[in-house]
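Entry 14. Ran structure prediction on the chain below.
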Amino acid sequence: MTTTTENSTLPLDDGDLHVCQDGPRDAPALLLVHGSASSTRSWNAMVPLLSGAHRVIRIDLLGHGRSAKPEDRSYAVPDQARRAGLVLDRLGVERAVVVGHSSGGAVATALAEERPDLVTALALLNTGPRPSAFIATESTAIAPSQWPPADEQLRLFASTAFSRAGYRIPDEILDEAREMTYHSLTATMRATRAYLEERALPERLSVLGKPLLVLFGEDDRRWRSSSASEYTAVPGAKVELLPGLGHSPLLEDPPRTAAPLLAFTAIHAPQAG
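Output, structure tokens:
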């Protein structure tokens, strides 16, 4: 299946955001939110699998990809969520299923908190529920003086995003991280941790009453996959581990990742508004 991507730049008060759209404009809306040090491109392999049945919308969050990277604007999770909501408003989307990968799942959750009228259901891919689920590794730290990092250091930094050592990380993924500023990278990572420390995601999601799908690569090297079981505390949540996949199942095995997501959206996707 082929898909034609429409790229646009939407000016907001605190910075321009890059937006991609695929699929029929009258189909149910599906918003895809990338993780830290990533961009809309991380979803490229998934889009052809999803755009047949959905109006697929992707946003480069502030500080990422082809969006603005200001030094004097907030990278807090609720502010990133607010911007995502404004983008959907500008596009005329009244209801959407929101999918977040990694820290993008925190942004998806915050969007549902701020705009419950807009978000009909949530799907989280390898999103750690709380800070204690994070797997810390000293070797991935990069100092300000080392930015932008050399290729070897960048590959080491990105390596834990995949299930196995030696996985050939796509060059465009490395480029997205390299093109960030040190400020936007570190501010985003601090913001995610602060949001999770304030209140764990299962606690936030339990009070929202939204349908929830949690997919987790069983071999995740950034977030303990055993922590996915915490989401079972959310009433009605469906939690599924993906054996043999790591932190980025959307890149490692797009068809296997898309299948449960499509089954979920077939039930919960809104009719186009």
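The CA atoms of residues 81 and 212 lie 18 Å apart. Will compare against last week's run tomorrow.
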